[in-house]
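FIELD: query
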Amino acid sequence: MKKHLLPSLMLTIVFVVICGGLYPLLISGISKFVPGSGKGETLMVNGKVVGYANEGQKFTLDKYFWSRPSAVGYNAAGSGGSNKGPSDSAYLKQVQANIDTFMVHNPTVKKEDIPADLVTASGSGLDPDISVQGALIQVNRIAKERKLAPEQMLALVNAHVEKPLLGMFGPEKVNVLKLNIVLDELKK
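FIELD: result
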């Protein structure tokens, strides 16, 4: 037993130093070179913080692109999904309510054309992005509300499509807050 105790203790100490000290320092150092220096990418308008690029927000006015629904009310302190699945009647009622709300505000859209990300919450409940299709399907509503040409809105969406990481990891997406900030700047 003594023969195994000392190597086990030494291995534990080595891994505590690596996993509890060196690895966090390495990651902290790397984070200094990303936008926001590891504290999140802060988005500002007129010198005031309006949100973070990596945190979803709720938009309900017709003049804005809408985000994904949130199971946690967009509360970053308690991110998480609902843990409800497609066999849960309460979940199905919530999704149907989201579809109905979307249809009321986008009467020209067919129900079957609504992308799933506009009516279902993400796993974190804080997803800041929507699919390109999710943004494009809202163009007519926003163009009408803001009295802009739909072509201008399409160009705006296409200019804000974020490509997959390294061209292959993840889908194309649109950051809702960044797009809505640019929309408000168009009026100026």
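FIELD: remark
The chain has one domain: 46-187.
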